[in-house]
Predict the 3D structure of the following.
Amino acid sequence: MDTILRIDVGAAGGPKATPTPVGDYAGLGGRGLTSAIVATEVPADAHPLGPENKLVIAPGLLSGTAASMSGRISVGCKSPLTGGIKEANAGGQAGQLLARLGYAAIVLEGARQGDDLYVVRISKDGVTITADPSVRRATNYQLMDKFLGEYDKTGAMIAIGTAGEMGYGNSTVSITDMEGRPTRHAGRGGVGAVMGSKGIKAILIDAKGAKSRKPADPEAFKAASKAWVEGLEKHPVTGEGLPAYGTNVLTNVINEAGGLPTRNFATGQFEGASKISGETQAELEVARGGSATHGCHRGCIIQCSGTFVNKDGRYVTKQPEYETVWAHGANCGIDDLDVIAELDRLDDDYGLDTIEMGATIAVAMEAGVAKFGDGQAAIELVREVGKGTPLGRILGSGTATTARVYGIEHAPCVKGQAMPAYDPRAVKGIGVTYATSPMGADHTAGYAVATNILKVGGDVDPLKAEGQAELSKNLQIATAAVDATGMCLFIAFAVLDQPDTFQALVDLLNAYYGWNLDAAGVAAYGSKILAFERDFNQRAGFTSADDRLPRYFKREPLAPHNVTFDVSDAELDSVFG
Amino acid sequence: MGEAPTVRVTLSRPAFKALLQRGIGIPDGTGTSVREFLQRTLGIDPAYVEEQLQTVFLDGHPVDDFDRARVRPGAVLALSGAMPGLAGATMRRGGYYARMREGITHAGAHGTDGSAEEGVVIVKLFNRTLADLAETLAKRPLLVPGDAVGSLDPEAEVDGWVLVAVTLA
């Protein structure tokens, strides 16, 4: 992984790929590398869809090794949705394979010439790029049908659907899973539109003949890997809860807590929660002949995904995740898992972020475009987005834009990005992260690693109400570090509780790279990534006024607990102050 | 709730689990602490209560202290294992991140008098507790929503609830 593949889409005669040494970016991976390149090479005032922006696709530091759970891949750019720096990451096969081929990153850069769409093919023998008129307006599943024979055995596909091609603020970069399906998405922030602006429709990876990456200290790596797997398998969440029910296991619990945003964040409990819960979903999947336990890439031992089939036993989509079930379910007043699965399928096919799409439909429902609870209307709205009708283009521009178009105050967004599935009035600590993350409202920005283990910023008494800012800062630092490793964020549950499992992760990095990293070093690594990101955003014009939740979250109490978001602006400013 | 006959019903395990997610009524045992209710009234093994019930809500409020929180008539008690994600960690009983949801945390004995008042407690089971405790609950008389068992006997239904003895198919 000592090569960055730079593809100049403006080269004479068509896009040209040039392998370059990783150089000053050595030691960075995943989000660390995407954010470093974007912060260093993209002018902060660039238009997100202009020639100065770059799309960076980077496996993690441990991707392509034998370490379990290391298959995440990061996609970074200046975001068309937020106007700030963006890193979105996904599972699937591509991260492992790119790393095995020796690539630390692919950078799409330059000014697109003409309107041809190109397909990039990468193998150990080199890179070819060809114009392909047949991919225009192809959806992700249509691309799968066209190219599966090329990548199904030893490869993967990175692609954009129609949303990315049309330049939507809501558009993903899809990554194929173990079955070659485009079910994994770097979803947030409109990264697909940036890929589309470069005229690259698909990247086909063939890793035939590529080997696992070899660590600097094989014996130490083997020992750390064993401890790592043991730690994940013994933890009740990573070893039992997630494999049995997937992430949608959270629906019942967050609903019971009164923190499940319902009907565009109007209330915190949904009367139909038990109909769309992870428990009900798993029963349904198994009864129909699908699966409630499945991995998104080889080497995953948590297996939090699954396969959703229809009443006839035919594949519809992968198991919809908690965020998707919430966005298209409770937040739209829809309590039908078949409708939610159909919406998930359409999102994956067009290349749409399920969180942003669900939040947008809920705003449209509040505006009277459709009725809350009308599943067929929701499906039709997403089809409009995929087709690119005038209404579809408005909805595809995201939640904040849709709210502006319809004159709705209730746009649950920060920095232009829709909030995920936890109402910040009920769980204020998560609200602090929504407000202050450089990424916009993002539940994964402050997700990972026990700050009590890292001890960044000193110990905080957990029994005191004060210190939400300190907690959020430490979580964001730790998460940034994990995002650089290529490790799935769901490892956080085990690392959160088990210091020896956290140490095993550090040992994996040290054994692979020959480093002497300790907990403080991990924290410094995460801080460095956040520093890149915050610096970029400041140069792009963001101020502390952007580190706020919409004012109505302070004013309108959330039932059933009738709580408001009352964390002071001063405390929000202290997160990175 | 007045006296009503007990109706014998046979339910499939999926149907019973669906009911347990919505909530079933336990006719007695209020006025006790959450721990006493779980162990004495429901008959859950103390070790299971301590080790596996990592996420518990009383009237929608996350409970950190099983001994201080008391179960009053009409209360809703929801039981869950450890949950994923930061939100899951914040909801966990006595967890490090509990302060991130301090605005909704159950305030101990607040609002209850601690007397052994009779009444119905609604119990919900989620995730692993569905698998672990469904059989235990099926062994005792339960109140279930009348629409859930299709009761045709008007005398069996009181305030929308039917007292049932469940046989799992």
Notes: Chain A has a mean pLDDT of 92. Residues 3-206 of chain A form a domain with the Aldehyde Ferredoxin Oxidoreductase;  A, domain 1 fold (CATH 3.60.9.10).
